[in-house]
């Protein structure tokens, strides 16, 4: 069976792990990686990650010309770079290459650009691409409907250097119609990859829905799930929580 060819944006703390998850999965071929600078320029991501084979030719964003995506065909683009990365694959969208964006903090302009791409190709955007967080997101909205009077607070924990408030927590707050500035509480310690807890407080009981990304490989597994889904979809914008909500609908136990 033909391998699914991947073009990856970003080779940082998370991008390297994402690259590794695609490299170790026989269904995929990591064709190239694009990063901001020239570190490891034209080396192979596979070699840098300890593999004996050559895959994932590393480019800089400055290498992207109008013919880049024509000359280096992929079946999907996966973006773990930065918000600015979204402007670099316009011609890929025009070529109808599906796009999975995992950027957690977009401004309005970048989000608008991503929505523009969804008029030409299939785009999946997820500020937290783990299956677990998206199950939590759907479950929390169901629970809020079941217990509409519960007090709700969101706690997010990340590694000490993370500057911005968790995009995941903001998305959870938005889904629950909560003011993120008041209801999201951030903890920055050590090397925590990403933990999120939604606390539902009621007079006689507390319900806590929580998710812990133990390893950044969880994001790679989510990206793999997202690519396998998106490459078979028609043009449009997709989100992980919609896919998970459909799975809830199809699997809810009937007593
Ligand atoms: N959706 C999800 O589940 C998750 C999302 N994320 C998000 O992924 C993104 C990356 O996170 P992380 O790896 O920790 O960040 P890092 O800062 O460690 O890495 C960023 C990478 O992107 C590259 N880069 C930055 N700007 C551009 C650009 N304009 N074009 C191409 N490459 C670029 C950098 O290149 P260089 O190496 O040359 O500097 C670097 O390789 C963040 O938005 C983060 O929030 C992270 C984890 C999970
Ligand atoms: O920066 C990260 O690492 C992460 N960012 C995302 C966020 O801000 O929600 C997702 C994940 O928690 C890790």
From TrEMBL:
Transmembrane segments: none annotated. Keywords: Amino-acid biosynthesis, Diaminopimelate biosynthesis, Lysine biosynthesis, NAD, NADP, Oxidoreductase. It catalyses: (S)-2,3,4,5-tetrahydrodipicolinate + NADP(+) + H2O = (2S,4S)-4-hydroxy-2,3,4,5-tetrahydrodipicolinate + NADPH + H(+); (S)-2,3,4,5-tetrahydrodipicolinate + NAD(+) + H2O = (2S,4S)-4-hydroxy-2,3,4,5-tetrahydrodipicolinate + NADH + H(+). Pathway: Amino-acid biosynthesis; L-lysine biosynthesis via DAP pathway; (S)-tetrahydrodipicolinate from L-aspartate: step 4/4. Pfam families: DapB_C (PF05173), DapB_N (PF01113). Its EC number is 1.17.1.8. SUPFAM superfamilies: Glyceraldehyde-3-phosphate dehydrogenase-like, C-terminal domain, NAD(P)-binding Rossmann-fold domains. InterPro entries: DapB_C, DapB_N, DHDPR_bac, NAD(P)-bd_dom_sf. Residues 4-128 form the Dihydrodipicolinate reductase N-terminal domain. The keyword Cytoplasm does not apply. Gene3D superfamilies: Dihydrodipicolinate Reductase, domain 2 (3.30.360.10), NAD(P)-binding Rossmann-like Domain (3.40.50.720). Residues 132-243 form the Dihydrodipicolinate reductase C-terminal domain. One of its GO terms (cellular component) is cytosol. One of its GO terms (molecular function) is 4-hydroxy-tetrahydrodipicolinate reductase. Signal peptide: none annotated. One of its GO terms (biological process) is diaminopimelate biosynthetic process. Belongs to the DapB family. This is 4-hydroxy-tetrahydrodipicolinate reductase. It comes from Propionispora hippei DSM 15287.
């Amino acid at each position: 069976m033909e391998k699914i060819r991947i073009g990856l944006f970003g080779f940082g703390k998370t991008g390297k792990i994402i690259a590794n998850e695609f490299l170790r999965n026989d269904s995929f071929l990591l064709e190239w990686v694009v990063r901001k600078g020239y570190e490891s320029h034209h080396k192979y991501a596979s070699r840098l990650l300890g593999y004996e084979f050559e895959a994932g030719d590393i480019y800089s964003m400055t290498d992207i010309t109008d013919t880049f995506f024509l000359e280096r065909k992929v079946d999907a683009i996966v973006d773990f770079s930065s918000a600015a990365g979204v402007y670099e694959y316009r011609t890929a969208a025009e070529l109808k290459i599906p796009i999975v964006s995992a950027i957690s903090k977009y401004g309005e302009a970048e989000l608008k650009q991503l929505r523009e791409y969804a008029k030409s190709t299939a785009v999946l955007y997820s500020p937290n691409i783990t299956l677990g967080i998206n199950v939590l997101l759907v479950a929390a909205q169901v629970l809020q409907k079941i217990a509409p009077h519960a007090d709700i607070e969101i706690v997010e924990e990340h590694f000490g250097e993370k500057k911005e408030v968790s995009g995941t927590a903001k998305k959870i707050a938005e889904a629950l119609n909560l003011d993120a500035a008041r209801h999201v509480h951030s903890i920055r310690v050590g090397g925590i990859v990403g933990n999120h807890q939604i606390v539902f407080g009621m007079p006689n009981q507390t319900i806590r829905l929580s998710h812990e990304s133990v390893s950044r490989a969880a994001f790679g597994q989510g990206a793999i799930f997202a690519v396998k889904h998106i490459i078979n979809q028609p043009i449009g914008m997709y989100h992980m929580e919609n896919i998970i909500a459909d799975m809830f609908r199809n699997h809810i136990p009937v007593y």
